[in-house]
């Protein structure tokens, strides 16, 4: 069944008769539909209707503005064909269904990862020279409030559910939370997509298309690189992840070229910890509160990498100590096999 707001917009655009197929979404509340017909011949014969919750209209505006910014710097993003703000509906370019996760040949996939990292490095560099109004991303950052919210959600949804935290553990958690906030906020900063992973990258017509970029902001340098290379959806082997990271660090046009050695390692494991805390808590929350096991197949990879990252991020030491007696219980409770039982 077609969303009623999309149907109203299509009627106004004279496209209500076109066949319309609902597309699978992620955790986003937006809904997507593929339309096809000769009226779209100028656009390859298909287009995608994107329906945003009315209360999130500002995010649709940000999607348009950030997309325009990325396109101006040579990053492929879907073009907007039609837009109805009162209905929060857009008709945008169809960039296909070939997620980067569906590129199974490692050499071919890694070539696309390098394209993405080069595009990211170019945007990061450009953003250092641009004013705060260059895009919505330039005027906001990963706030202390958001960092603490993500860490506390993990504590409440994951750690605390497995075993109540003692007073001593709560104090340890607070110590680790403070240390991570200081490291993330006080370290080198950069432009970031904020949700850069292999299911937000699509391969079509020889180009790598970025999507879901409306939450872009400024934040800890290397966060996007870690988000991409520690992505549980892709579960890259460590050897490939490290090679790709080194390719990014060797780019002549990247930001923070003055940093190296221990500073890079500390930043790397710190952002990896924060990103994976966010992933694990999200996967568990969606199962516990929505009853959807969509993300549980990726939990093992996320937990494995988070455990390793916490052990290597200096600021995350207190959190690692709190989680030490809980790691095995996490998978015993929420792995796909455990849920199936």
Q: What do you see in this structure?
A:
The structure is a single chain. The protein has 341 residues and is an alpha+beta fold. It has 2 domains: 4-92, Phosphorylase Kinase, domain 1 (2-Layer Sandwich), CATH 3.30.200; 100-340, Aminoglycoside 3'-phosphotransferase, Chain: A, domain 2, CATH 3.90.1200.10. It is built from 12 helices and 9 strands. It has a 5-stranded antiparallel beta sheet with strand order 1-2-3-5-4. It has a two-stranded antiparallel ribbon with strand order 6-9. A hairpin with a 2-residue loop joins strand 7 and strand 8. Helix 3 packs parallel to helix 7 (238-249). The chain starts with a helix and ends with a helix.
Question: What is the gist of this entry?
Answer:
50% of the residues lie in helices and 12% in strands. By secondary structure, it is of the alpha+beta class.
Strand numbers in spatial order across the main sheet: 1-2-3-5-4
The level 1 CATH classification of the largest domain is Alpha Beta
CATH topology (level 3) name of the largest domain: Aminoglycoside 3'-phosphotransferase, Chain: A, domain 2
What is the percent of helical residues? 40-55%
CATH superfamily of the largest domain: Aminoglycoside phosphotransferase (APH), C-terminal lobe
N- to C-terminal distance: 34 Å
The protein's oligomeric status is single chain
Structural classification:
alpha+beta
Q: What ranges have pLDDT less than 50 throughout 5 or more consecutive residues? A: none
- Rg over CA atoms, rounded to whole Å, is 21 Å
Number of helices: 12
The proportion of strand residues reads 5-15%
Give a count of the beta strands, DSSP E runs of length 2 or more.
9
Any idea how many domains?
A: 2
Shape summary: globular
> Which CATH architecture of the largest domain would you pick?
Alpha-Beta Complex
Q: Describe the biggest sheet?
A: 5 strands, antiparallel
Helix-strand string = HEEEHEEHHHEEEEHHHHHHH
Average of per-residue pLDDT values: 95
């Amino acid at each position: 069944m077609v969303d009623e707001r999309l149907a109203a917009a299509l009627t106004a655009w004279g496209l209500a008769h076109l066949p319309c197929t609902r597309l699978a979404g992620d955790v986003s509340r937006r809904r997507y539909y593929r339309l096809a017909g000769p009226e779209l011949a100028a656009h390859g014969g298909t287009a995608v209707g994107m329906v945003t919750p009315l209360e999130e209209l500002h995010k649709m505006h940000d999607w348009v503005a950030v997309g325009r910014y990325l396109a101006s710097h040579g990053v492929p993003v879907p073009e907007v064909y039609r837009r109805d703000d009162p209905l929060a509906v857009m008709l945008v370019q169809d960039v296909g269904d070939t997620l980067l996760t569906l590129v199974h040949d490692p050499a071919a996939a890694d070539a696309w990862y390098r394209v993405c990292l080069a595009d990211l490095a170019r945007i990061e560099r450009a953003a250092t020279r641009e004013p705060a109004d260059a895009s919505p991303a330039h005027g906001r950052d990963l706030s202390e409030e958001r960092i603490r919210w993500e860490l506390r959600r993990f504590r409440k949804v994951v750690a605390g559910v497995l075993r109540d935290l003692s007073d001593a553990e709560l104090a340890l958690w607070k110590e680790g939370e403070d240390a991570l906030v200081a490291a993330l906020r006080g370290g080198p900063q950069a432009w970031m997509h904020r949700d850069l992973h292999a299911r937000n990258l699509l391969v079509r017509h020889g180009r790598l298309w970025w999507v879901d970029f409306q939450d872009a902001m400024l934040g800890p340098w290397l966060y996007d690189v870690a988000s991409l290379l520690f992505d549980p959806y892709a579960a890259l082997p460590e050897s490939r992840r490290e090679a790709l990271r080194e390719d990014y660090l060797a780019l002549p046009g990247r930001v923070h070229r003055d940093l190296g050695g221990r500073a890079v390692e500390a930043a790397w494991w710190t952002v990896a910890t924060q990103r994976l805390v966010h992933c694990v808590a999200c996967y568990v929350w969606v199962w516990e509160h929505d009853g959807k096991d969509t993300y549980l197949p990726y939990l093992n990879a996320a937990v494995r990498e988070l455990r390793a990252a916490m052990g290597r991020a200096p600021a995350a030491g207190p959190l690692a100590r709190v989680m030490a007696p809980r790691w095995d219980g996490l998978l015993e409770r929420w792995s796909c096999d455990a849920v199936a039982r």
